[in-house]
Amino acid sequence: MARRKELKNIAQGIVSSFVSRNNDYDGYWELAKLYDLSKNNSGAEISIDLLGSTIYPYLESFEPLVYIWQSKFLKMLESRSIPAKWVNSAIIHAKFDVEYREQLHKWGMSGEPCTCECAIITDNGSKYSVSAGTKCMPFSRAWFQRSTRRKNF
């Protein structure tokens, strides 16, 4: 039988995948593209609402990314037999240009520290939140090579 505390493991899986260098969007590292979105919006924190299917700050070209993460989240719930009605909120937050913390930012390539968090709030008010960090730099076609795993959007 599923238990709500399994949502912490789901949050861990999401945030680990989210900061991974293998996490591509349109063939390029997703965090680098989100870093640009943040910079173009005065350094705003990026928020992806996995239930509401929204991204803030909004940019139409990122809509497919939101649906990809929403689909991953729902599949994770389904694979653990967790009813979606147990989840009131599930949000991924990405913060760029944060203060360096060795525990979170010792991994990653060159660039500035960034921190990502997945926060899940249940129907009974419990909150499961997991953070991960890496280093990130702005997207540049000259620096990043397009992945062969690229999907057309």
Helices, strands, pairings?
Layout: H1 7-19, E1 24-25, E2 28-29, H2 30-39, E3 46-49, E4 54-56, H3 63-79, E5 87-96, H4 102-105, E6 112-122, E7 127-136
Q: Based on Cα principal axes, name the global outline.
A: globular
The first-to-last residue Cα distance is 37 Å
| Low-pLDDT sequence parts | none
- Supply Rg: 15 Å
What is the β-strand count?
7
Q: What would the average pLDDT be, to the nearest integer?
A: 85
Secondary-structure element order, N to C? HEEHEEHEHEE
**Helix-strand makeup class:** alpha+beta
Q: What about the largest sheet?
A: 5 strands, antiparallel
- Tell me the strand percentage band: 25-35%
- Side-by-side strand order of the widest sheet: 4-3-5-6-7
Count of DSSP H/I helices = 4
Short summary of the structure?
This protein has about 150 residues and is α+β, with helices and mostly antiparallel strands.
How would you explain this protein's 3D organization?
- The protein has 153 residues and is α+β, with helices and mostly antiparallel strands.
- It is built from four helices and seven strands, in the order αββαββαβαββ.
- The strands form two sheets. It has a five-stranded antiparallel beta sheet.
- β1 (24-25) and β2 (28-29) form a beta hairpin.
- It is globular.
- The termini are far apart.
Features:
153 residues; 5-stranded antiparallel β-sheet; 4 helices
